[in-house]
Amino acid sequence: MFRIPHFHQIEEMSFDEAVQIMKSRAKGDLLAGLQSMDALWSDYVALPGDEQDDDEFFSNWCYEVNAYNVVVENMRPLFV
Question: How far is CA 73 from its chain centroid?
């Protein structure tokens, strides 16, 4: 799950909308879409500290990180 700054949180994103956003990142594959966001974040945190700008990252990827959180939160009961 992403710790999204309050300013970049989207409170009213439905599960269906979140799934579509994640699927669109990977040609219709939900798991691949989630993994692509994990990879994007890993690449970002691997940047030197002076090149990291959390506000810019969350501004650029606002819908995707919110969609990721909605999907993961709604699917969590399947894995408990």
Answer: 12
